[in-house]
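Dear colleagues,

For the upcoming journal club I promised to circulate an example of a predicted protein-ligand complex. I picked one with FE2/S2 (inorganic) cluster because it came up in last month's discussion. The inputs are reproduced below in full, followed by the predicted structure.
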Amino acid sequence: MPPVTLTVNEKQRTTEVESRTLLVELLRDHLDLTGTHVGCDTSQCGACTVLVDGRSVKSCTILAVDVAGSEVTTIEGIAGPGELHPMQAAFKEHHGLQCGFCTPGMVMGALDLAARSADPSEAEVREWLEGNLCRCTGYHNIVLAVQEGARAMGGAS
Amino acid sequence: MSDTGIGAAVRRKEDARFLTGRGRYTDDIDRPGQLYAHLVRSPHAHARVAGLDATEAERAPGVVAVLTGAQMAEDGVGSLPCGWLIHNRDGSPMAEPPHPPLAAETVRHVGDAVAVVVAETRTQAKEAAGLVEVDYEDLPAAASIHAAVADGAPLVHDDVGGNVCFDWEIGDEAATEEAFSRADHVVTLDLVNQRLIPNAIEPRVAIGEYDPSSDMTTLYTSSQNPHLIRLLLGAFVMGLPEHKLRVVSPDVGGGFGSKIFHYAEEVVVVWAARRLGRPVKWTATRSESFQTDAHGRDHVSHAELALAADGTFLGLRVDTKANLGAYLSTFGSVVPTYLHGTLFAGCYRTPAIHGRVQAVFTHTVPVDAYRGAGRPEAAFLVERLVDKAATELGMSPVEIRRKNFIDTFPYATPVALEYDSGDYHATLDMALELADYEGFEDRREEARSRGRRRGIGISTFVEACGIAPSSVAGALGARAGLYESGQIRVHPTGSVTVYTGTHSHGQGHETTFAQLVSDHLGVDIDQVEVVHGDSEKSSFGMGTYGSRSLAVGGNAIYKAMEKVVDKGRKIAAHMMEASPDDVEFEKGVFRVVGTDKETSLGDVAMTAYVPHDYPEDLEPGLDETAFYDPANFTFPAGAHVVEVEVDPETGRVELVQVTCADDVGTVVNPMIVDGQMHGGLAQGIGQALFERAVYDESGQLVTGSYMNYTMPRAADLPSFTLGRHTTECTHNPLGVKGVGEVGSIGVPPAVINAVVDALSDLGVTHLDMPATPERVWKTIHAAQA
Ligand code: FES
Ligand code: FES
C-alpha cells in the first residue's frame, strides 16, 4: 500500500491507503473527518463535496492517490473552533439546513460558487447546486443562504 | 412574545454542529472491535431458495462468518411484526403472513436478503458476499396491483388467496347508494397515485453490539423512533427484555416516514453481534436504499362524486386497491385505511361517503408511510374529483369549493373524524389574494401569445395529524399507544434538561422544544438542553411521524412543565411563608399575589435539591414526567394555488408560481414552520412532476438509482410564497396542529389541476402523476385524436 501525502485543512497528512481507496474513504475512515458524508453510489447527490485546490469536487468520484500533493478542504476546516465561516453563518441565519446531512456538501459547493461570483442570482445558485441533492429544505432557504453567504464573502474564499 | 418564546424565529441550536461537520450520524459511529456486514440479496422478485453454499465465501480474506436465514430460523428469531391489525368488511382479521428478517425458503422481492457476510472490513464483506452461491429456483412474479389481482396470479404468500391481505371499508354504503340515486350529476374519475421512493439523503445504518459482562445489547440505528424499535425488536423478534436492550438513534439524516419502520437489517446486526461477540455494522448503499427502504403511495382508485344540480355534494364513493409490497411493513396496513379513508370528506360537507380499500401483496419491496401517508392519496383523489365536477357543471373551481366548505366546527364527518377547528374560506381567500388569482386570465392570454399554455390550479385540503386517542386507535386495531412522554428536569441552579420520546431528524426539536421551556418557565434558551434518541435516557416514547412531535410530544412537555410549576409553587410558598394558593407563576418567577414578595425558579430549584428548610409533605427534587394522550387528531388545513406554463410542443411543465395559505395551529417557530412547508412542497411537487418508482413485469426495479429516479433538484423548483391563517387546535394546551406533511398533501392536486386547466381547451380532462414531458405530450395527443 503506497503512502499518500496531502494537505487536509492546512495540515500535512500521510496515510497508507489502497490504490482503490476513494478520497471520501480516506477522509472518513482514515482521518476521522466524518463531516463529509456519503449519500449515494452513483456520484449524484453531492453530500461528499469537498474542495480540492479550491475547486469543489465530489470526493466519492476521486481516488485518494490521485490527490497526493493537493490541498483538500473539508467542512471541518473552513472556520476556527467555535466560529462559523460567513457561508456557514448564512446557512444558519436563513435556515438553509434541516437534517444537516446534505449540508457540508452544500456549503463546500457554495464556497466554490462564491469564489467565482460575489453576488449570484437565484437562477445562478439553483444551476450551480444542480449536483447537490437535498430532500429536506426544498432548496428555498439554501438559495437564500448561498446568495447571502456569497455577498458576505465579497469574492473572498 | 419574548425573543426566544412561542412565536419567535429563533435560529436553531442544532445548527452549530451540523454546519461544522460535527453532527454524529449512525455511520459516524464505530465501535471497538467492530465487524462489517454485507447482505446477500436476491436478484429475483420471486424464487425458491433451493440451496446456499457459503464455503468459498467463508474462506475469503477477513471473513468471520456467513450466517443464513435457515440459521436465523433455527435460533428462533421471530418475524418482523405489523403494528396495526385491520379487519375485513366481514369482521375477520387481515392476513398476516410471516416476514422473516432473512428469508430461508422463498424470496419475495428483489433485494430480499437470504444471508449476511460478516468480515473485518466493509470491502472484505462485500467481496465475499459475491462468493456466496445461492441456488434460486426462479418463480413467476406479480409485480403490480394489476398483475397480483389477475386470475391465476402467482401467489406472494401461499396461504393468502388472491394476494388480498384485507378488504376494508369505511362509511355508510346504503346511505351513499341512496345519495347517488338522488343525484342530478355524477362525476367519475380513475386515478393512479404512483409509487414513490422516499430517499432520505442519509442511507440507513445499523450497528449491533453485545456486552457479555452486563448482558446488555445495544442497537445504534438511523431510526425515527428508537423506543418503538426497542419494543418490536426486544419483545416480538428477538425475545430480549427491554432492560437489557438499548436502542440509540443519534443524528438522523432525514426520514420522511422511511425510517419509522422496524427493518430486517436491525435484527440481522443484533443477532450477528450476539452470535459473534463483536459489534457488527451495516451501512446501506444508495442502491440498497432503493431496493429495501419501504416505498410510498401506490394506489389505484375509482372515485365517484354525486352532486345536486346546483353543485352541492351529495355523496362520494371510492374503490381503492393499494399495493402493500411483498410483506406487511410496520405500519403498511394503516396507511391505505385509517390514514386514507378517513380523509375522504376533505374540507367538504359531503353527507354520505363510502370507501372500500383492498390491499394486495405483490413481489415488490414493502410499501409503508411516506410523508403524508394516505392523506396525499385522499387529497389528490378528492381535489381532482372536485375540479372535474366544477368543469362538468360549468362552475368555477373556487365557487364549487366555497359552496361545499365545512364552516361550522366541531364537524363530524361521515368517515369517523371530528374536525375541531379551521377556517377554510379564510385560507382560500388568502391564497387567492397572494396568487393574484383575479389577474390570471390576463396572464393566460399573454402566455398564449408566446405559444405557451398557462394554467392555474387550486387545492383546498385538510389533513389529520397525531393519531389519537390511544383508546380509539386501539379499538381500530392499533397495537401500540399513541401518546408521548415528556420529562422536565430542572437542575439545582435552574438550567433545564428536556427528555422527549419523539425524535428529531431535521425538524429542529432541540430549538422548538427549548422555546416551549423558555416561554413557559422563563429559562434562558441557552440554559435548556433537549435530549432524544436514546432509550436509556428518555423514559419512553412513540417517536416522530405523522406530524405528531409538537402536537403530541410538545404537549407532553407542556404538561410536565405544569407539574414542575405545581410543585415549585408549593416550595415557593414555603420559602415565602404563604399559602400555595396565593402563589402565582409567570415566566420564571413565583410571586405572592398582591404583594412584592417573589422568588425565582432557580432559587426554588436550589431549595428543592438542598432541602434544609423544606415543606414536610414534599419530596426533594424538581424533575417531572408527563405522558400526554391527545383527545383527538389535529386538523391542519390550507389552500394551495399553483400556476404553470406548458409548452404544448414538448410537453414540458414549468412551475411559475406556488402559493400557499395554511392553518397549522399555533406556530412556535415560524422559520422552522416555513422550512417544513418548503420541504413538503418540494416532495409534493416531486410527486406531481418528477418521481415514479417503476418495476418491470418480472419485478426488477427499473428506477433503482438517481440516474433513473428523478429527484427534484434546485433548478427544478421555484421559490415558494407562503401565507398563514391560524385557528388554534381546541383540544391541546398549546393550540398546535402540525406542519410536517402539509406541503406533500396539499400541493400535488394543485399542480395537476393547473396542468389540466392549462390543457383543458385541448380536450384534456385528467392526467396521472408525474406530469413528465412525455406523459403530458402523449396526453395532449391522445385528447386531440
Ligand atoms: S456520495 Fe453521492 S455524490 Fe458522492
Ligand atoms: S437538510 Fe436534510 S438533506 Fe438537506
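Two points we might discuss: Chain B touches chain A through 55 residues (CB under 8 Å). Chain B has three domains: 15-19+483-628, 31-139+202-253+259-292, 296-467+632-784.

See you all on Thursday,
B. R.
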